[in-house]
Amino acid sequence: MEHSTLRKGMLLGIGNPLLDVSANVEKDVLDKYDMIPNNAILAADIHKPLCGELIQKYSAQFIAGGSVQNSLRVAQWILDEPNVTTFFGCVGDDEYAKILEKYARSNGVNVKYQCNKNEPTGTCAVLITDKHRSLCADLGAANTFTIDHIRNPENWSCIENANMYYISGFFLTVSPPTALEVANYALSKNRPFIMNLSAPFISEFFAEPLMELLPFIDILLGNESEAEMFASVQNFGTKDLKKIALKVCELPKKNPNRSRVCIITQGPDAVILAQNGTITEFPVEHVPEDKVVDTNGAGDAFVGGFLGQLTMGKPLDVCIKCGIWTAREIIQKSGCTFEGKANFNV
Asked: What does the pLDDT average to over 11-33?
């Protein structure tokens, strides 16, 4: 890798920093909390005892989490040079925040947290059942992020310094004005603005801020269930993922200098790339069942590998192949974790 092409702060991400509380459970625990495998929800009153139960009864692990922060950690693994990425999000003034910052910085991410002393750091209960995962996020302090944080001169300089910007659909539940302000800045400088659909409920229940932001989005990522929900809410009239990806690319766009790219992952099935009216598919090499530990970090890892290569200026096919590689590596470990050097080769 040519490190000379890299510099600090090239990739800026904004999202919800959460401490994952991860445990292997039986299906009856999912039923108890009205949860289903391979889904993500926001915590309601019924879920308040969940993290405590995972810690007390199931020997839960603490893992640094939050979708965007995870992806930046993986991107740093690929980039192999510290502080190429910067992360904004809000945490509490507590021990969980210290754990999060320690993990993120140890992986090379320059975290610039906003701190809310009145709210606890957010958590995400990760219930692993037969190698599938179900997520329940209690955003806590993450839910209180304010636009003032990015307007702080020191933080705004990070936005000015970045070459590209990545935001999660999850963040639209927190501060759509922040997302729009960064998107407008990216547009004014002709820099890529990238977003992930994150979960089906974003398209279903936060369609208004999503569609307000969509014209700014240069690259939209999502998995098959997220893409199908988006298509349903937007009345595309099809469940064909290739047609959905093409239709996403045709939606209104503000920057005529960049044609929109849509990427849809399908777990072990081929990744779909739509660009300029054309579909390209990228096969996913099979991971033997006995090697799969859990699928919790697969989506975040795919994005991390993709963004790592994109930051280095690599073409989209290389970015996607790296995303597939990182996802395959990380489903063989617990949570979004990795070790050693990333030895991805095209």
From this structure: 94
